[in-house]
C-alpha cells in the first residue's frame, strides 16, 4: 500500500493550489462564527441595551438557547449523515437570509414572549449552520493538507468574522440609528454562504 506524500509546507500548498476552497471555507466558517457571536455572545447585551429587556432574564434565556442548540446539533448531525451536510447548511443559510429581519423585528414588540419565540426560531435555523459547517470544511481539502486547511479557515473565520461582529454591529447601529442592523449583517453573511 502506497502512502501519499505529505506536503513539507502545507500552508503554501493550500494558498497556491486550493485558494478556491479557502474562499469557500472562509464563507462557511464566517456564517458559523457570526451566528455563534450574534446569537450566544452578543444577543443578551444587545436586547438589554437597545430594547431594555431585563438582563438577568436574557442570560437565563441564553443558557436555555445554548442547551437547545446543543440538542438540535445532535439531531441535525444525525440527519445530515443520512441526507447530506451541504443541503442542511444551505437550508439554514436560506432561512437566516429570509427570516432574520422579521424575527429581529419581533424584539421591538416589547414582550418577552416574542423574544423567546424569535430567539428560539433563530437558534433553530442557526443550528442547521453550526452543526454541519465543520463537516463540510473537512471535505474541501485532500488529506495531505486537510488539517492545515480546516485550521486556517476555522481560526481566521472565528477570529475575524466572529470576533469583530459585536463591535461592527454596535458601530453600525450607532451610525445608522437602526436597531435591526444585526439582522441585515446576518443576512449578508447568509447570502454569501448560501452560494457556496
3D structure, described in words:
- By secondary structure, the protein is mainly α.
- Helices cover 83% and strands 0% of the residues.
- The chain has seven helices and no strands.
- The protein has helices at 10-17, 19-51, 55-83, 85-105, 112-138, 146-176, 181-194.
- Helix 2 (19-51) runs parallel beside helix 6, helix 4 runs antiparallel to helix 5 and helix 4 (85-105) packs antiparallel against helix 7.
- The longest helix is centred in the first third of the chain and has 33 residues, at 19-51.
Summary?
The protein is mainly α. It has helices spanning 10-17, 19-51, 55-83, 85-105, 112-138, 146-176, 181-194.
- Which geometry do the CA atoms define? globular
How big is the Rg? Answer: 18 Å
Order of helices and strands: HHHHHHH
Structure summary, number of beta strands: 0
Please report which band the strand proportion falls in: under 5%, 5-15%, 15-25%, 25-35%, 35-45% or over 45%: under 5%
Q: Which helices and strands appear, and what pairs or packs with what?
A:
Layout: H1 10-17, H2 19-51, H3 55-83, H4 85-105, H5 112-138, H6 146-176, H7 181-194
Helix pairs in contact: 2-3, 2-5, 2-6, 2-7, 3-4, 3-5, 4-5, 4-7
Key attributes of the depicted protein:
7 helices; mainly alpha; about 200 residues; globular
